[in-house]
Design the sequence.
């Protein structure tokens, strides 16, 4: 069975600093990987996804993630964060269309 | 743009009440999902539906039922609400089983007192 571990429950960072949110997954088959963002009092919005091809995936709002099969990781990065990036971020894995598993979430707080 | 709407943003109900949460999507998607979101637990799947009148249990179906009479609408029912069902409920949809991306509604924060 597939599962996702987000290694940090909270990440505080200063504005304009780089950030990495870590995600590890386990699955016995080929996987598809996602990062979603949830702003306060809103639903989830897709940031980026890896289905196949290049292991470096670029998403919206300047975020990118790298799929590392040998380390079963899919870490999310941004070189310079803004106050508006403050939100909760969820990593998710799916090995078939109807079965998506989410991590527990990482709360990113960007401080001025 | 895909739009998924949920009938209420905030809901307060009493223990034992029957509660209906409604979700509507406007993109003719085949699949619809209900999740609950709790701090530290992420999202957990309650039920999903891959067609009208079809449903499958997710990881935590106990205490919940669902209804999908029309393609665009997926309802979550709490037959007899309990305090441990206080949570954020998120609805999502996806085009079909070959599409791995899910589109989410804004969520309903349910409080059971």
Sequence:
């Amino acid at each position: 069975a597939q599962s996702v571990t987000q290694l940090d429950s909270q990440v505080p960072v200063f504005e304009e600093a780089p950030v990495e949110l870590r995600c590890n997954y386990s699955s016995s088959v080929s996987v598809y990987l996602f990062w979603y963002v949830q702003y306060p009092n809103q639903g989830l919005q897709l940031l980026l996804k890896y289905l196949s091809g290049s292991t470096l995936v670029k998403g919206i709002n300047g975020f990118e993630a790298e799929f590392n099969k040998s380390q079963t990781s899919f870490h999310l990065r941004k070189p310079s964060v803004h106050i508006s990036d403050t939100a909760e971020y969820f990593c998710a894995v799916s090995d078939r269309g109807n079965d998506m598993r989410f991590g527990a979430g990482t709360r990113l707080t960007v401080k001025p | 743009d895909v739009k998924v709407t949920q009938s209420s943003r905030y809901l307060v109900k009493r223990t034992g009440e029957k509660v209906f949460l409604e979700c509507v999507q406007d993109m003719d998607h085949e699949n619809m999902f209900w999740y609950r979101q709790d701090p530290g637990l992420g999202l957990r799947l309650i039920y999903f539906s891959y067609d009208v009148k079809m449903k499958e249990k997710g990881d935590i179906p106990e205490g919940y039922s669902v209804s999908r009479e029309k393609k665009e609408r997926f309802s979550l029912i709490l037959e007899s609400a309990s305090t441990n069902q206080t949570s954020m409920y998120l609805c999502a949809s996806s085009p079909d089983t070959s599409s791995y991306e899910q589109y989410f509604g804004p969520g309903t924060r349910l409080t059971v007192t």
User: Anything to note?
Assistant: The CA atoms of residues 11 and 108 of chain A lie 5 Å apart. Residues 1-29 of chain A form one domain.
